[in-house]
Amino acid sequence: MAESMQGLHRTCRCAEVTTEMVGKEVTLMGWVAKARNKGGLVFVDLRDRSGIMQLIFENGSIDEEGFTKAGKLRSEFVIAVTGTVEKRGGAVNENLATGEIELRVKSLRVLAEADVPPFPIEENSKTKDEIRLKYRYLDLRRPDLQRNIMMKSKVAQLTRQFFTEEGFLEIETPMLGKSTPEGARDYLVPSRVHPGSFYGLPQSPQLYKQLLMCSGFDRYIQIARCFRDEDLRADRQPEFTQIDMELSFVDVDDVIDVNERYLAFLFKEVLDIDVKLPIQRITWQEAMDRFGSDKPDMRFGMELHDVSDIVKDCGFGVFTGALENGGSVRGINAEGQGAMPRKKIDKLVEFVKGYGAKGLAYIAIAEDGTRKSSFAKFMTDEEMDALVKAMDGKAGDLLLFAADRTKLVYDVLGALRLELAKQMDLLDKNEYRFVWVTEFPLLEWSEEENRFTAMHHPFTMLMEEDLPLLDTDPGKVRAKAYDIVLNGNEIGGGSVRIHQDDIQERMFEALGFTKEAAHEQFGFLLDAFKYGVPPHAGLAYGLDRLVMLMAKADTIRDVIAFPKVKDASCLMTQSPSQVSEAQLHELGLDLEPQKEEEE
């Protein structure tokens, strides 16, 4: 039977009991993590969000009835105990904050009994994700997940503190807005009052934060909820949180400066790690040429080498064919992997096919300097020597090459570089390598739509000196856009915005928008810009991803209290779910009957 806690007050949390409190009487409350009945003694590990405290029940220190009750305690029972703090009688537990002390219990109340949980509540659970997410409220009792959620709370609180001191105002923007599908798919909310009309949930507060700059608030910050109805990958959630900011009367360097100081402050306060400022900056082009990625992981080398010039006249058709089609030939050197078995190389070939490569050419250099290669027979010895030299190949190295359209070669080698780093154990989670990637292309060509689309969004400012290229070679125009990358993850990104209407009009033209179409989608912003708009720029972090890296978690689900799974459903609440006919009727909606699956 559950008992009342009336008249009892918790002194502190379990792990807040210290050796200074020895001899004092305290009241603790929490969950039974473990109970061990040793005949005349019962030991219980009591757990709450702070950690564990060992309780000791002994006949004599507690009355007969209390001792009998203690013998029946099972895991996850919720209890309240009052007793005296003592030095541990048995061995000291070095792994616990309270490892030198225990609580000799005088009185016990069972506040709630518990069924046997469907899986053990323990750190680094091996239980299947589906089961853990179905019983997420139990999963969240695990100390490792609780530490992550507590760290996220601390990051949010420090973020507010830092930006407040920098003169930012926290301003909320609407959840129910206009659907502006530019980017991912919007989540739509039907309106009851305006039948047939819909609100869109924000993919980000982009338009509102720019309007706040027009309103003169000059420094805005928001920890904002965002929604994207896109096909989920392992590390995407349909709803996520941004640390969103916008600043007026600034250029790229101003935004970068305040954010570098913010990251240094955050990492020092939360992890006691010193981030060396200024953070290195590389251009987008340099990132692609060296790492094959616009979010380079710089904890290890293995950079790309462009060997197009070396092989342009060789006899290997795969190389020369790619060059004749305007592509390139590039390679990476997996140092010390020259003895990789053929089977493993074949696996790498399969891996790169997943990124669109037709294959992978290789040269394996044995310790004695002899070479095995998939294409040696098409090359002269001199050509092979020149290629190995261009790749800095030494005895014991494995050289891998991709030849195709340059964009594809970047993708393939960028992914292969990371895959090899994993296999070779080069990724240290305790190392934090930041880099700014700047000067992104303003536009990218979309094969599906047969037009240029905005790489970030249509309000991104271009480098002034590239303005003439907008008419002649739009693909070459660089944007005043910047991403902050940490260990190969883009944790934040932003840009200077366009504030001159003539440039904005040219941008819409380049994107293939008519004046009417631009007004239809973004009219309220364009109208606002007629009334005196300051130069402005902004940046947004993915809070979940940032905390994931700080907590060394493997997925963003580990830093979100109630995440969704890959098909955007919640296993715990079983949403999304059907609603009643009456609710649909009120909204003026009716559903087409689902076709029965044919047997």
Automatic annotation (TrEMBL):
Aspartyl-tRNA synthetase with relaxed tRNA specificity since it is able to aspartylate not only its cognate tRNA(Asp) but also tRNA(Asn). Reaction proceeds in two steps: L-aspartate is first activated by ATP to form Asp-AMP and then transferred to the acceptor end of tRNA(Asp/Asn). Residues 151-563 form the Aminoacyl-transfer RNA synthetases class-II family profile domain. L-aspartate binds at residues 182, 228, 456, 497. GO terms for biological process: aspartyl-tRNA aminoacylation. Gene3D superfamilies: Bira Bifunctional Protein, Domain 2, GAD-like domain, Nucleic acid-binding proteins. Its EC number is 6.1.1.23. The lineage of its organism: Bacteria, Bacillati, Bacillota, Clostridia, Lachnospirales. ATP binds at residues 228-230, 237, 490, 542-545. This is Aspartate--tRNA(Asp/Asn) ligase. Pfam families: GAD, tRNA-synt_2, tRNA_anti-codon. It is found in: Cytoplasm. Keywords: Aminoacyl-tRNA synthetase, ATP-binding, Cytoplasm, Ligase, Nucleotide-binding, Protein biosynthesis. SUPFAM superfamilies: Class II aaRS and biotin synthetases, GAD domain-like, Nucleic acid-binding proteins. The record marks 90 as: Important for tRNA non-discrimination. InterPro entries: Aa-tRNA-synt_II (IPR004364), aa-tRNA-synth_II (IPR006195), aa-tRNA-synth_II/BPL/LPL (IPR045864), Asp-tRNA-ligase_1 (IPR004524), Asp-tRNA-ligase_1_N (IPR047089), Asp/Asn-tRNA-synth_IIb (IPR002312), AspRS_core (IPR047090), GAD-like_sf (IPR004115). GO terms for cellular component: cytoplasm. It catalyses: tRNA(Asx) + L-aspartate + ATP = L-aspartyl-tRNA(Asx) + AMP + diphosphate. GO terms for molecular function: aspartate-tRNA ligase activity; aspartate-tRNA(Asn) ligase activity; ATP binding; catalytic activity, acting on a protein; nucleic acid binding; transferase activity. Residues 206-209 are annotated as: Aspartate.
